[in-house]
Amino acid sequence: MPTRGPQRRQGVETRAKLLDAAVPALAEKGYHATRVDDIARMAGVSHGTFYLYFANKEDLFRTLAERCADEADALAESLGVVDSGAAGVATLREWLGEFLAFYRRYGVVIRAWAENQVTDRALGRLGAASFERITTTLRASMAGAPGDAAESARRLELRSAALLAMIERFAYVTTSRDLGFGEDVLLDNLALVVHRGFFRPRSARTAPLA
Known about the structure:
Blueprint: H1 5-29, H2 36-43, H3 47-53, H4 57-77, H5 86-114, H6 121-143, H7 153-176, H8 183-199
Helix pairs in contact: 1-2, 1-5, 4-5, 4-6, 5-7, 5-8, 6-7
């Protein structure tokens, strides 16, 4: 007998509550220390209810990781070529704002990937592929910047990897504690620093900021 509409909706909502509750639970205790009971309690459901929707903590994390990977793909596709002028700074600022919002939703997943907390090899590969897609986007944006056409592929690869690592750590710090600055100030300064250090022609990187 098919599940009725209201019951189906309730099931979807309960599953979503469990996924939402997993984020603060994992953030508080870390991937390995978080228990199913921690997630169920935070979601306001019973231990048994959890197992109606997920086989175990790893199954729930896998769902979060797949969602994170999908959004990482969309984020990677949203950044085009960043030019060396004021328009490039504006483009970067908008994209960095999207990255911070993405990190707020999935920081626990990203940290688990970045810090090798995940023992499931398939999930590890999913994380590596997500990072690589964003790195590839950054590399392509740098390669298209005026004045850097002659820059070697190897140098671009290293710079794009370094930039993603810097942005990820910045996102971690600014989303895990109050630095006493508004988000507009943080994004304005991050965009300027990233633009000057990574997207202006090398000959212009020592020139004063406009």
